[in-house]
Specification:
six-stranded antiparallel β-sheet, binds flavin-adenine dinucleotide, Elongation Factor Tu (Ef-tu), domain 3, alpha+beta, six-stranded mixed β-sheet, FAD/NAD(P)-binding domain, 2 domains
Length: 441
């Protein structure tokens, strides 16, 4: 069947995560009817547990705000493109310094309501196991795409190797944290005292480091090749590179003074609130694949966490994505089956924001194409344009997923010593280019 016979006013979106919700609402807001198919609560992936749409499976943070940060730039661009994820996040914020962190339950409930209230979206619960060849479809099934769908995707794209691995961090119950040891503050006192910080002396860090580097790790199953995304390395993998990798990485103490000693601690773990009331706290940067008993033993060596109760322990998870440069075009369509589009993390981006941004672009460009107006690709100078370009043109033998960072934006063309100023100029250029492009849509 040729695409010309497809209905131009109806689209199937598979997966009601961040990307699927963005894509569905972009389409519906432009008058296209959407059938949104979400497998929850009929079937859950290993990390999802709520029937609500747009579930945040790990951290509750949509990263730092402000145009000095790459994530802040992407947030701003997404807002200008009508992002429902950003709007909903802002409406459901919890205090987290400069980070856009949310109450995850309220956030997902609000996103679900937005979808349910949209007259042009029909939400259907149940797993999709095939990709149709008779209608426009956006596959937004995420890093934990169900097995049959992963097979369907492989057969459409010809991409056989869709699996990678990501680790996630434990969450601790607030009333089990020793408040006589931890202190509330943000690094360099930027923003409010929103984080809880566990300070460590040299000796305490030494004991913790020795335990961490000798702890038992969940073995990788034989048939699984383990490839972990660089930006999400488990804490024990970082530790194996040496103490400094922690002291200059997730446990860096700069910007903090321990009120008990009046001095900078030797090392420090930050805990970020999961909810406004502070009942649950996420161990920042402590994604791990240690066995559960070892996590409890080793993490309780951290001052302030000696009696910690874990609301959730860390674990290693599958990450499914296509080999973008070989499989996708700039509109995120499968080259071999252009009526099938992809959105979200499965396109080969990494992170909540980036995934939602790819949902916006997929929904937006499909809606415009169906109304007879093929848009230009988003400008390369913008964050969203740079991500799209990376996804379908990144060189190299094996594609690696990308998160938003200033390094993916084209250089300014002048050498700049002042990094802050360079970021500011690139953010300014990004928004200018984006606004011009939006005006053409
Ligand atoms: C364990 C883990 C931890 C992570 N931690 C972080 C983090 O801390 N910060 C961060 O920024 N990003 C994190 N990520 C990445 C983050 O999950 C994604 O970037 C984001 O959620 C992807 O959005 P998405 O819409 O593409 O997929 P998802 O949000 O996963 O949504 C996909 C949806 O599709 C549904 N689905 C799957 N298969 C089918 C099917 N066959 N039929 C119908 N529905 C289906 C799923 O139930 C789900 O609701 C993590 C990912 C994992 C796996």
């Amino acid at each position: 069947m040729g695409e010309e016979k497809f209905k131009a006013d109806e689209v199937l979106v598979i997966g009601g995560g961040l990307a699927g919700v963005e894509a569905a609402l972009q389409l519906a807001n432009r008058g296209i009817r959407v059938l949104l198919r979400e497998m929850k609560p009929v079937k859950y992936s290993e990390a999802h547990s709520s029937p609500a749409l747009g579930e945040l499976v790990c951290s509750n943070s949509l990263k730092a705000m402000g145009l000095g940060q790459a994530s802040g730039l992407l947030q701003e661009e997404m807002s200008r493109l009508g992002s429902v994820v950003i709007e909903t996040a802002l409406n459901n914020r919890v205090a987290a310094g400069q980070a856009l962190a949310v109450n995850r339950e309220d956030f997902s409930k609000a996103l679900t309501r937005r979808v349910e209230d949209a007259p042009l979206i029909e939400l259907v619960r149940g797993e999709a196991t095939t990709l149709p060849n008779d209608r426009y479809t956006i596959a937004a099934t995420g890093p934990l795409t169900s097995e049959p769908m992963a097979e369907a995707i492989s057969s459409v794209t010809g991409d056989e190797d869709l699996y990678f691995y990501d680790a996630m961090a434990p969450i601790i119950e607030g009333d089990s944290i020793d408040r006589s040891v931890v202190f509330a503050a943000s690094r360099y006192e930027k923003g409010g005292p929103d984080y809880l910080n566990c300070p460590m002396t040299r000796e305490e860090f030494g004991r913790f480091f020795a335990a961490l580097t000798s702890a038992e790790i969940v073995p990788t199953r034989n048939f699984e090749k383990e490839r972990v995304f660089q930006g999400c390395q488990p804490i024990e993998t970082l530790a194996a590179k040496g103490e400094k990798t922690l002291l200059f990485g997730p446990m860096k103490p700069v910007g903090f003074i321990d009120p008990r000693t009046g001095k900078r601690p030797h090392a420090l773990l930050q805990l970020r609130r999961e909810d406004e009331g502070g009942q649950r706290w996420n161990m920042v940067g402590f994604q791990t694949k240690l066995t559960y008993p070892e996590q409890k033993r080793v993490f309780r060596l951290i001052p302030g966490l000696q009696e910690a109760s874990f609301y959730r322990l860390g674990s290693l998870h599958r990450n499914t994505y296509v080999d973008g440069p070989r499989v996708l075009d700039g509109y995120l369509r499968a080259r071999r089956a252009p009526w099938i589009q992809f959105a979200g993390q499965i396109t080969g981006v990494e992170g909540y924001l980036e995934s939602a941004a790819m949902g916006i672009w997929a929904g937006l460009n499909l809606a415009l194409r169906l109304s007879g107006k093929t848009p230009d690709l988003p400008p390369e100078e913008s964050g969203i344009g740079a991500l799209v370009r990376h996804v379908y043109t990144a060189p190299g033998k094996r594609y690696e997923p990308m998160n938003m960072n200033f390094g993916i934006l084209p250089p300014l063309g002048v050498r700049m010593k002042d990094k802050k100023e360079s970021k500011r100029l690139r953010a300014e250029r990004a928004l200018e280019a984006l606004d011009k492009w939006i005006a053409t849509l």
